[in-house]
Amino acid sequence: MADNVITVDNLSKLYRLDHQSRRPDSFRELLSNAVTAPFQRLRAMHGKATRSTEDFWALKDVSFSVPRGSVVGLIGRNGAGKSTLLKILSRIVEPTQGSIRLRGRVASLLEVGTGFHPELTGRENIFMNGSILGMKRREIERQFDAIVSFAEIERFLDTPVKRYSSGMYVRLAFAVAAHLDPEILIVDEVLAVGDSEFQKKCLGKMQEVAQGGAGRTVVFVSHNMAAVRSLCNTAIMLKSGTLYAQGGVEKIVAEYLASARHTAEPQVTFRRPDKAKLWMASAELLINGQTSANAEMGDTLSVRVRFQSDFPTKHPRLGLVVTNAAGDKLINTNNHFQPAKELSTALQDGTITCHLGQLPLVAGLYSVSLWFGDLTTDHHVASDALSFALTEKDIWGSGRVPNAESSLLWWPSSFAVEPVQPTAAS
Amino acid sequence: MSSPTAPVHEVIIQPRRGWVPIDWRELWEHRELLGFMVQRDLKVRYKQTVLGLAWAVLQPTFSVLIFSVIFGAFAKIPSDGVPYPVFAFAGMLPWMLFSTAVTAGGQSLINQQHLLTKVYMPRMFIPAASIGTAVADFAIAFVVFLLLMLAYGRIPGPSIAAVPLLVGIAVTAALGASLLLSSLTVSYRDFRFVLPFMMQVWMYLSPVIYPVSMVPEKYQWILAINPMVGVIDGFRSACLGQPWNWDTLGISAGTAVGMLAIGLFYFRRTERRFADIA
Lengths: 426, 278
Known about the structure:
The complex is a heterodimer.
Chain A: E1 4-18, H1 27-45, E2 53-67, E3 71-75, H2 82-89, E4 97-103, E5 106-109, H3 122-132, H4 137-151, H5 166-178, E6 184-187, H6 196-210, E7 217-221, H7 225-231, E8 234-239, E9 242-248, H8 249-261, E10 267-269, E11 278-287, E12 290-291, E13 294-296, E14 300-313, E15 317-324, E16 329-334, E17 347-358, E18 364-373, E19 378-391
Helix pairs in contact in A: 3-4, 3-5, 4-5, 5-6
Chain B: E1 10-13, H1 24-29, H2 31-46, H3 49-74, H4 84-111, H5 114-117, H6 125-151, H7 163-187, H8 191-204, H9 220-223, H10 227-240, H11 246-271, H12 274-277
Helix pairs in contact in B: 2-6, 3-4, 3-6, 4-6, 4-7, 4-8, 4-10, 6-7, 7-10, 7-11, 10-11
């Protein structure tokens, strides 16, 4: 029997979704809620619920074990239960049923820069953040120079981090986390930040951690199949809260890509993310103007997002990236790239539609990731929120079709043939 | 890092029900974090030094000034033979310590939700750390108070050595109230609105502007259930040389410890749901 450092046994997590709208509309309502809410909550606790609630198993009977020294990729679509599993592994939320046994010091990294305070200097935040992540003062002092040079912020060490550029902030935050020295490291998709140069550096650092020889175990969650493949040796795939497959990384990634092919999602509704002031309520794909997840070559594609916000905004910003099944990002567009156009009336609830026009994509399965925000901030990010399948079509009526093996894109183009007159020389 | 001979650090994660015991070992292992959090709050508060320090002094000074005019000069509330401003300041100081600590502590969890939902750490440190600033404010205002006493020609006697003990009782009560209120606020956001009102009522139930001697002697023990009664009364005995009222102090110290126990137990009981509802 291998030396298992993580043993998950029949783990389940139940969430009770509350269908009452949470935001009181008036001060009067707020007051009456203030008086009645505790009583209602008490009654709900004793099973005499007066509001409609719905049980939702974010995880159901998940069991697996991770041997010492392995690097496990945790994959699955949005809502498959990855985040819930990570939060339970990190001891942030408690499971409803089942258990996990962890042998070794655990450090988890679900966010970069947890506990950073904008008024404190880089130096002070290194200590604060390191300590929150479970490092001792001695360890932080020992690693201090390495952290600073990894983050490349030597000159700004004594500047409050509120004056940092967002890149510097992320670099510093990741640098602290990268110098943690735990026996079990749990990493959420925190690499999805920073410039690509720095991302490479982070992946390198993680690889170093994973292969450090000290028998370190890493659990890594990502939507980026290329990163999972290069970092992990085994993978676990979750689907609708259950364990779908577990095994060698290549096999599981292939399985993930294959299963995604059968689950094209033309529509998605979102839960409002924590603390988001501006968020997407739902999104849908329109193929030739109709909600659908099945397109043929040459069809036109639009993405419509219903957004809501705490305050009226004149600057909704939507970005989207279309990715193929292998994880290549093919199309990137964002109205932030375009000259700022202000809405004439500010909206709190509206839709924003991006018309991509005729897609130059070859047959295959594609997913669409969405970013939503305003002029300054991405308030809501949904990786691979929508997906669609594209099938071949005889676009030019010639019986010949650009095939998926020869290129990632085809291009609508026209050809002009002109004769060249023989020159009258000689 | 860990040498092969180090004992394996094993953690079992499973649903817990009912009362959860306090994990003292974990608190001890993370003690440095509490220090960092207190330091952080102090640094942030006094970063702009002039304003930060001034605030700690101005707040009690102005309250005392207003109280002296309204309650001392107009209403002529007795002050046990002590000049009213000195008397009111002596009540205001421990009261401010308690009320700033509870106000900051009560809101600490909802103001730092990312520490609940993004990382695991001993969550008791969050309300506990916010008390550090209140103690620092107290220390600064205490210096001002001593100057005021000197200005009125009063020299504190040796009994002033009891002040740290009284601060200890106030901090114990404040920690208990903070733990209870902060966890209630996570579940019921309404407590955010209740808190300021509650502190106001609590102030009038404490002998800040009036002496305990105004209350008939046979009812004083009821008053003393409020831990701040013993602390404020004791503070006046320690600094102004009033006779000590040991019964009151004893009862108040007892309730302070009781409040801490209730706060700790309720916090531990609800803590496991924080990340789910925060």
